[in-house]
Amino acid sequence: MTFQTLLQALSGSALDTLAGFDRRAALDAGLDPARVRAWAGLYDVYFAPTHSRQKQRQAAEKARRRGFSLDQLALIERRLKPVKSARTRAKLRLQLLDAQGDYQALARLAKRLVPGKKKPRRSQVRFSRSRDGKRTMTVTADERDLADLEHAVSREIDPSKPAAPQMLKAFLDLMRGDGTGVPRAVPRPLLLIPLPEWTKIIRGDGDETILGLTDGTTVTGAEFLQRYATEEYGLEAATFHPKEGAVNLYRTKRLANQKQRDLVRATQTVCPVPDCRCAADMCEIHHVKAWSRGGETNLDNLAVLCRYHNRMNDDDPAHPRRGRIEIIDGAPVWRSPRGYAVANEHHPYGAMQTLFT
């Protein structure tokens, strides 16, 4: 196929190429799912059964006569999507199919005829995921409040230097204050030990396990647990089985509910739904087999889930709609509605990945 042949297939009488549209075949061919969805929508508009065959026929005739490309036809349907009335959509579609010019000319006309619905801006604070050790915070609030903040962080700027870094420093000074401002988050130190090595240590063979420290020295497993984990830093030692997951948490005070939460958070450091960046410390504890369906509060039935995904999880595995969490080889994994297990690679430092992958 030449480039000219490709252009003819996507423009001119391109509409008729969708007559035999097959969504599954298009996806299997490696096409962009967004493009496949757009083509599926065009097929429904121009070829699927409808109550208004006359309007459908008129629209198809105009699309062919004007030589609209598939991208132009998809643009029309995107702009018409918010219109609730099918009759109004059909009327506007015929008007847009009378347009002349290229894609941009059609986009301008569509914007005039079908203005997008303006969404009200919500007051909120959002944090991006970490990249190269940095994060971005976005604040949407009352303009007067942010005007006060802008004044506070910019009033002592040196005009001979870039303003943004100076405003950031002033903002952080305001945030920290004189020690009474925002406290620093203190990560919880937790020592992760594969079960076979822990067995050696508690059996009295801890000298066989050598641990390297960041100061360039080494200690045996027994020495580390005795000195650092209990005497100096108050670290806790958690053990994990390569298939069963979290086994136990050894600490001086035994609080069963808190112990389970600690182990579940160590097993998966973020919400396990793909691309979710919500940290385990900010997640809720989720019953993989729902409590209402007989699920127990045991380690092999618990996972961390952010507030949103905890409510979106499919508790009934027989009727999947949005996917659900399962325990696979001791770790929580999201399974899609179509049955695919997909791991969250955003922060791959959970105990099971760290110890056994």
Automatic annotation (TrEMBL):
Domain HNH nuclease intervals: 259-311
Write out the entry's keywords from A to Z: Endonuclease, Hydrolase, Nuclease
Region (Disordered), start-end ranges: 117-138
Pfam families documented for this protein: HNH
**GO MF:** endonuclease activity; nucleic acid binding; zinc ion binding
Q: Which Gene3D superfamilies match?
A: 1.10.30.50
The protein depicted here goes by the name: HNH endonuclease
